[in-house]
Amino acid sequence: MRYRAKPPAQMLLISRRVPVALVLAILLLVACTAPPPVALPSPPDERPVVRDSEVRMNQLIPKPAAVTPRAGVFTFQPVTTIHVEPHGEEMLWLGQYLAERLGPATGYQFVVQPGGAMSAGNVWLTTSGADPALGEEGYELIVTPDGVMLRAHRPAGVFRGIQTLRQLLPPAIELQQAQPGAWELPAVEIRDVPRFAWRGAMLDVARHFFGVADVKRFIDLLALYKMNVLHLHLSDDQGWRIEIQSWPNLALYGGSTQVGGGAGGYYTQAEYADIVAYAARRYIIVVPEIDMPGHTNAALASYAELNCDGVARTLYSGVEVGFSALCVESDTVYQFVDDVVRELAALTPGPYMHIGGDEVQTLDAAAYAGFIERAQAIVQAHGKRMIGWEEVAHATLSPTSVVQSWRSTVAAEAVRQGAKVIMSPASRTYLDMKYDPNTPLGLSWAGLVEVQDAYAWDPATLLEGVGEQDILGVEAPLWTETIATREQMDSMVFPRLLGIAEIGWSPAHGRSWEEYRLRLAAHGPRLAALGVAFYRSPQVPW
Ligand code: ACM
C-alpha cells in the first residue's frame, strides 16, 4: 500500500480572516491549477523493505516445524569458509557436498575446513553440543548477518538442514554456470524435525527400465525435499532388473524386454551397490522389492522350474496384472526366494526387504498366506524386516514386518497384528495417475490425482484403525506402464512429490492447501533451474 498524497501545501497558508468568497475563489483556483494528487511527490515509503531472502524463508518445502525470523541477512562471499566439526570423514563430506551445491552458481570455490566454532563470515556445520531431541534427522539452523550455524544431533540432520539452506538461497543457486549474486540468506532461526521416519518414493524400473544416471538424479531430487527412502520395484511380469549371480538368467533373459517390447535392461550388482552408496551419502535408504508370488512372469520365463508345469513362460511386454504366480508348493521356489533375498540383502545395508505380495489372482487364500509366511521367515533369516503390499496382511505377520497400504482398509488387519503401515493410498500418492482427463500419460483406475489431491489429506486420519502411532510414514509410487523417459517421469512426479514430502515431514497442524499452493509456486523456478520438466498444474499460481 502506498501513502495517500498530503493536501497541497498552499491550502495550509490560507488565513482565517480572509473573506469566505475569496477563500472559495482561491480554493477553486487551487483545485484547477494544482497538480492531481497522484502526481505529487510521495513521502518515502516507510515500510521495511521485504527482501527476497525473507520471502524465501516462508517458501520452504517441506515447511519446517518452527521458523523464527531475525533481522538482517548473511551474504556468501568468495572467502566464506565452510567449517565442519567434528572433523571426521563424514562431516568433511557434508561440507564438501554443501560446497559443491553452492559452487557452480556462485562461482566461488568454497574451502571446507575442520573447525570448532561459529566464526565471522563463515558457515559452521556441526554435530557437537546438539540437542539429542533433534533425533536422527532434525537440525537447527541459525543464520545471523555474521555467520551461519547448522547443528544436528546426527550427520543426517546436517544433511537435511543443508537442503533448507539451499532453499533459502535464490533458485539460480541450482544452475550450473556462474550467476550474478547477491547470495543472501535471511537471518533466521529454524528448528526442524520430521513427523514421520519414512518419507519415500517408489520407482518401478520393471515396466520400463531406468538406468543408473536417471536413478541418481531422482535420488538427488528426493534429497532436496528431505525424503529418505527410495523403494526400487526391481521385478515384475515385464522385467527382472537386478543381477542375481546364483540365478543369472533372471537378469540376462528376464531383463531383456519391457512394456512395449523395448530392450529393457538390468543393474549389475556393482551398479546396484553404486546406487545404494550414492543414496546412503544422501541419507536415503534403498528398499529393494522383488515382487512375489505374483507379478513374476519375467522369472517364470527365465527358469522353467519356477512353474508348476515345468514349462517356461514367454516374455511379456503387455500391461495386464494378476496372471502369474510362482509354484508355491515347490521346494525349488523357496530355494530361489532364499538365494534372491540372500544376494540382495548382502548388497543392501538398509533394514528392509520388500517382497511385493500384491494382486495374486491364481492362488487360493491358504496357498497365498503360506507363501508369504515362508517368505517372511526367509527375509528375517537374512537379517531384514519384511515389507509387503497390503495383501500380505491376510497372512500371519510378525510385528517387525511392515505393510504398505495402497487401495483399501486391509492395513488395519496388519495393525491388529502389531505391524506398522506405510501409507501409499493410490488415490492420493500414485504418481502414475493422471492429473486430469487431458494428461497424456498415466492411468486413472484410482481416479484423477491433481496436485491438491496429492497434498490435501492426512495419513493418520485416512483409514479406520490406522492412527499416527501405527504409521511408519508415507510413500509415493511411480508405476511406469506408460512412462518411458526421464521427461515423462518428471511430468508425473513433479510437482506432486513435493506434497508427499511435506506430508511426511511437516507437522500436521497448520498445513493448508491455499497456503501450500503459493509456496509450491515458488519452487517452479527452482525445479526449472534443476532441469526438471514438471507439470504446470493450473491449480498452482506458477
Ligand atoms: C499395486 O499397486 N499393485 C501395489
Number of domains: 3
- CA radius of gyration is 29 Å
Given this structure, which CATH class of the largest domain is correct? Alpha Beta
Secondary-structure arrangement, i.e. CATH architecture of the largest domain: Alpha-Beta Barrel
Describe this structure in words.
Residues 1-42 have low confidence and may be disordered. The chain is of the alpha/beta class and 542 residues long. It has helices at residues 20-33, 52-57, 89-106, 155-168, 212-224, 249-252, 269-281, 297-302, 331-347, 365-381, 411-416, 426-429, 451-455, 459-462, 486-493, 496-505, 513-521, 524-529; strands at residues 66-75, 81-85, 111-114, 123-126, 139-144, 147-151, 184-192, 198-204, 229-233, 235-236, 239-240, 285-292, 352-356, 385-389, 402-405, 420-423, 471-478. Helix 3 (89-106) packs parallel to helix 4 (155-168), helix 5 packs parallel to helix 7 and helix 9 packs across helix 10. It has an 8-stranded parallel barrel with strand order 8-9-12-13-14-15-16-17, surrounded by 6 helices. A 7-stranded mixed β-sheet has the order 1-7-5-6-4-2-3. A hairpin with a 2-residue loop joins strand 5 (139-144) and strand 6 (147-151). The protein folds into 3 domains: 2-39, no CATH class; 52-192, Chitobiase, domain 2 (2-Layer Sandwich); 198-529, Glycosidases (TIM Barrel). The chain is built from 18 helices and 17 strands. It starts with 19 loop residues before the first helix and ends in a 13-residue tail after the last helix. Acetamide binds at residues 358-359, 389, 406. Residues 358-359, 389, 406 line the site of acetamide.
